[in-house]
Design a protein that fits this description.
The chain has 2 domains: about 1-45 and about 285-455 and about 480-635, Up-down Bundle (Butyryl-CoA Dehydrogenase, subunit A, domain 3); about 140-285, Butyryl-CoA Dehydrogenase, subunit A, domain 2. It is about 55% helix and about 10% strand. The chain contains 23 helices and 13 strands. Helix 14 crosses helix 18 (about 575-580). The longest helix has about 35 residues, at about 335-370. The radius of gyration is 27 Å and the shape is globular. The structure holds ligand FFI and flavin-adenine dinucleotide (FAD). Flavin-adenine dinucleotide (FAD) binds near residues 117, 147, 430 and 437. This is Acyl-coenzyme A oxidase. It is found in: Peroxisome. Pathway: Lipid metabolism; peroxisomal fatty acid beta-oxidation. Belongs to the acyl-CoA oxidase family.
Length: about 675
């Protein structure tokens, strides 16, 4: 729009640090930042995007069709980069990170699953030969894939899935069948109208024996006509809370035959004669889910970055209520309550980016070990990915909701883009494993770790449990980031130990272990969350320390404030636990509260620069409230005028219904 809003300009004039320096750290280095900018420039410079209609105003069908048009431009570009060797399948995590960050459809993409689940599942579950065959086709988009695991009857309990794959040794084929309505696949993204292949999860039967769930490549549509293949029943599941164009669908099979080679056989195999060869570790079959949970944490950074950018810029522009009679109205960013809403989420954005990067490092390390036959850290990785996916998506979802409220009524408008971000993050709390269920998986690992604490050496992410369980670990409270980490560690350990004690008592009183677990599961979920808080603050602390070593003094100061705010915020949030389990005193708690308020004031001048440094260009932010120039009122009006209801001065319903009603004729 041109001129920058005066208030926003003033905020930027006061900036004390080099914004590009921070963007470079956030992006993971200068090269990565330049690559991202170049990629985004190419994507948004495509004129075809401009010709589109506003997606928010379209029907369910219209949204799908418009998003398909846009996605093809995006993915055409990605394919071009891949053909030119600029992105490689070997850096698949980077590819996904880039795609998700640079996605420029408003409400998801029908091709999202192809990249987010179909290809990762091939990478995790297919043999080298299968990968060579399927990945080259998928990577080049010669085929488009979906991932069909969840069924109408079962999402969480995957061992209870009902789809059957029976091996027929005479024809060397599997026969896929959906025996009940509850066995219909329900939710696979892209299956509605986009994908022509899908990875399907089904109970494997061979030689009359069931071997549990396995993963199969199934063609569902003709490659030329896109017509559904015989025996396949599929369709769209209808409008959702958000992510309309993701094209989630249903899928059923009536005795559909696929070749033996279409079972993904990296970990377990069915030989030609029907002999089943078990995986060295059956949980390796769940590898794709672990990868995607790790990916989801990275994706939360994208959504939260957008939400805090929108809300912070808007809060600098928005003025409301003079504090001194007759004085100017304050920028809402100056209210401490508002800073309390905003700044923790800015800090969370940076924290989740750092933690997500650290989680990727662990993921690749453990994966390398597994490839060499060492599965020692598999359970730890699973527990880590589960709790970080659960707490990360939950923090992002509540953060986005807080940002929506921070924008008052305007945040409720689709044109603000906050409702869509809310729908993205809400969905992430459910998909790839409901958050409660995932936290209980982590709890299971923590309980086992606690029970073996004296007899075995602890893996790195739980190594704090041993020292933190010692009576003298925290005999003096310290109000510092390290002190808070120690306090949170003690809370986590005592909560886990408490759960074990409660369960043991319940079992001793005659309760079955399963019932004791269920009855204690509210506490178990909280214990897993407490452990995850330790991980989040610790990884953020370690990651910021690495950034501090590279940063110039003015930036260092701001990063330290951000880290401290994050730690103090969570200490205050968890004060009841700290009071219960550690030696923190009422005076320490008061001092922390007062420090928190100081931190809000100290961060106030840096708020706009901190979100500018996230580097989201307007075309990707797509928000009336969050654009760089802060011309919010002009944009709001411009978007409102596009409403189809404004096309007629008098809507036909006036004559048809309202007028007769007002005249008492209806
Ligand atoms: C890139 C595109 C660009 C586009 C650009 C343009 C657009 C830009 C914008 C685009 C934005 C995005 C758009 C939207 C995309 C939407 C994506 C949505 C994707 C979501 C897909 C899905 O949603 S897909 C379905 C996932 N559905 C689940 O996720 C089920 C959960 N349910 C379980 O996952 C199991 O059911 C559960 C609980 C483990 C129990 O499994 P179970 O019953 O077999 O196991 P048990 O509990 O008995 O546990 C037995 C022992 O196994 C251990 N163990 C268990 N798992 C283990 C593991 N993985 N690794 C190691 N160990 C493991 C455990 O710890 C126990 O260990 P121990 O015995 O030693 O204690
Ligand atoms: C937007 C979106 C996209 C999706 N995309 C795909 C896809 O592409 N492919 C695919 O296969 N699936 C997909 N899913 C499905 C998703 O993976 C499942 O919805 C998810 O795993 C939860 O399963 P469910 O819906 O059966 O919930 P349920 O398992 O029925 O859970 C319902 C409630 O019961 C609780 N609960 C269930 N079991 C337990 C337990 N053991 N202990 C305690 N509480 C429990 C849960 O916490 C939850 O609150 C998608 C879902 C969404 C929303």
């Amino acid at each position: 729009m041109g001129t920058v809003n005066e208030d926003l300009r003033r905020e930027r004039d006061k900036c004390t640090f080099d914004i590009t320096e921070l963007t470079t750290l956030f992006d993971g280095g200068k090269d990565k930042m330049l690559e991202r900018k170049e990629r985004e420039e190419l994507m948004v410079s495509k004129r075809e995007f401009e010709q589109g209609v506003c997606e928010d105003l379209l029907s369910h069908k219209g949204k799908y069709e418009e998003c398909m048009r846009k996605s093809i431009i995006t993915f055409g570009h990605i394919r071009q980069m891949q053909r030119e060797g600029k992105i490689k399948i070997t850096d698949y995590k980077d590819v996904l990170d880039c795609l998700l960050g640079s996605g420029n459809t408003r409400d998801g993409s029908p091709l999202a699953l192809h990249y987010m689940m179909f290809m990762p599942a091939i990478l995790s579950l297919a043999t080298t030969e299968q990968q060579e065959y399927w990945l080259s086709k998928a990577w080049d988009c010669k085929i488009i894939g979906s991932y069909a695991q969840t069924e109408l009857g079962h999402g969480t309990f995957i061992r209870g899935l009902e789809t059957i794959a029976t091996y027929d040794a005479t024809t060397k084929e599997f026969v896929l069948h959906s025996p009940t309505i509850t066995s219909y696949k329900w939710w696979p993204g892209g299956i509605g109208h986009t994908a022509n292949y899908s990875i399907v999860v089904a109970q494997l039967y061979t030689k009359g024996e069931c071997h549990g769930i396995h993963w199969f490549m199934v063609q569902v549509r003709d490659e030329e006509t896109h017509e559904t293949l015989p025996g396949i029943k599929l369709g769209d599941i209808g409008p959702k809370m958000g992510l309309q164009p993701v094209n989630n669908g249903f899928l059923g099979f009536e005795h559909v035959r696929i070749p033996r080679s279409h079972m993904l056989m990296k970990h377990a195999q069915v030989l030609e004669d029907g002999t089943y060869v078990k995986s060295s570790n059956q949980k390796l079959l769940y590898a794709a889910m672990v990868f995607v949970r790790v990916l989801i944490l990275s994706d939360m950074v994208n959504h939260l970055s957008k939400a805090v950018t929108i809300a912070t810029r808007y809060s600098a522009v928005r003025r409301q209520t003079p504090v001194i009679k007759g004085g100017p109205e304050l920028q809402i960013l100056d209210y401490a309550t508002h800073q309390h809403k905003l700044f923790i989420n800015i800090a969370s954005t940076y924290a989740i980016r750092i933690v997500a990067n650290k989680q990727w490092e662990i993921y690749y390390k453990v994966n390398d070990e597994v490839a060499n036959g060492n599965c020692t850290r598999l359970a730890e990785l699973h527990a880590l990915a589960c709790c970080l996916k659960a707490v990360g998506t939950s923090d992002a979802a509540s953060g986005v909701e807080r940002m929506r409220r921070a924008c008052g009524g305007q945040g409720y408008l689709q044109s603000s883009y906050l409702p869509q971000l809310g729908a993205f993050t809400a969905a992430a709390c459910t998909y790839e494993g409901d958050n409660t269920v995932l936290l209980l998986q982590t709890a299971r690992f923590l309980v086992k770790t606690w029970q073996q604490i004296d007899s075995s050496s602890l893996t790195p992410t739980v190594s704090y449990m041993k020292p933190a369980s010692a009576a003298r670990y925290l005999d003096r409270w310290e109000n510092s980031v390290e002190g808070i980490i120690h306090g949170l560690q003690v809370v986590a350990v005592k909560k886990i130990a408490g759960c074990v004690t409660v369960m043991e008592k319940r079992v001793q009183s005659g309760m079955a272990l399963e019932d004791a677990w269920n009855m204690t599961s509210v506490q178990l979920e909280a214990a897993a969350e407490a452990h995850c808080r330790v991980i989040l603050v610790t990884f953020f602390f370690e990651g910021i320390s690495e950034w501090l070593a590279k940063a110039s003094p003015p930036l260092r100061h701001v990063l330290q404030l951000l880290l401290e705010l994050y730690a103090v915020y969570w200490a205050l949030e968890k004060m009841v636990d700290l009071m219960k389990y550690t030696c923190i005193s009422g005076d320490d708690a008061e001092a922390l509260q007062s420090r928190y308020e100081q931190l809000l004031s100290s961060l106030r001048p840096h708020a706009v620069p901190l979100v500018d440094a996230l580097g989201i260009r307007d075309e990707l932010l797509q928000s009336t409230l969050g654009a760089y120039d802060g011309q919010v009122y002009e944009r709001l009006m411009q978007e409102a005028l596009k409403s189809p209801l404004n096309e007629d001065r008098v809507n036909q319903t006036f004559h048809k219904y309202l007028k007769p009603f007002m005249k008492g004729k209806l």
